[in-house]
Amino acid sequence: MKIASFLRLSVALFLALLWLSATARGQATSADRARLLRSQANLAPLPPSTEGEGVDQNYAVSTPNDTDLGEQAILKRVEKYDPFTLELGVPIYYTSNVALVDRGAMGDTIIAPVVGLTYAPKITGTLYGEFTVRQQFFYYQDFTSFNFASFDGIAGVSYAIPKANNLILHADLDYNRLTGTDDFDDFFSNVALNLSAEMPIAIGRAQQISFGAAASVSLYATPTPPQRNDFGVYAGYFVSLTRNLSLSAAGHVVVRPYDSGGRTDVSEIISGSANYRISDWFTVSAITTFVANQSNQSVFDYNVFNIGGGLTFSWKF
Fold this sequence. Notes:
By secondary structure, the protein is mainly beta. The protein contains one helix and 14 strands, in the order H-E-E-E-E-E-E-E-E-E-E-E-E-E-E. It has one helix at residues 2-40; strands at residues 84-95, 108-111, 114-119, 122-124, 127-140, 148-161, 167-179, 186-203, 207-222, 230-240, 245-257, 264-279, 282-295, 302-316. Strands 1, 2, 3, 4, 5, 6, 7, 8, 9, 10, 11, 12, 13 and 14 form a 14-stranded antiparallel beta sheet that branches. The longest helix has 39 residues, at 2-40. The termini are far apart.
């Protein structure tokens, strides 16, 4: 009887450990999928200006490495500065690997409507503040159980150094909360310190290349298994073909050490976009992204290809 009881207890403990491991892995996969999608389905970035040179801008210095495009606004001189930006967008795209798996990948179409409001006061010279709230929803056409919503509250500063070839330095705190689309019960939340430095190099009046480095350090996350830090470098190219049509391409390499489980991923990201600005407040975009992820835990290896486009409405005041 004692041996039988011991065996039953051992089997029960083993099954419990397997269940806990699967649960933690499921949480990590959901959080990873959501963080990948929200980084690739942002609003279309503001294109660099090609109208002049100087150290002032008609909008605050941005950190476009967050959108995996690796482009930075060329500075221009203006007399009026509007600190508020309200943006509405509807990205629609196809993803080749919904669950981010190594084998048996299945694709789906995703609609990701987003609304964001940014207040970017000019503090002094080329120093700007940034206060942003953004809400985005991700709706899958077939795999509706994967639907989720993402909320961001961001506070930070950006500083341009004209004497250093307009080097852009940026720092912010980002509170991100991932929830369902109906009940808004969070399945992951994270507070991250984001730091970046980017060197834009203008080539004439219509082209620009950029080199940058970025770090995202997780200060707090719940639940803890998906918590990670991101450290990356990137290079980007931008060309303005006409006053309204622009193209960009970029490559990223990102190292992602996780805080638990001994997991470390390395991602290579190649992206391209085309933006056509119909008016000052309306832009049509096409975006494509390829991500190859390698992990020291092979179950997290995957490749994913996204292609799509979107409409962006932007008002400055």
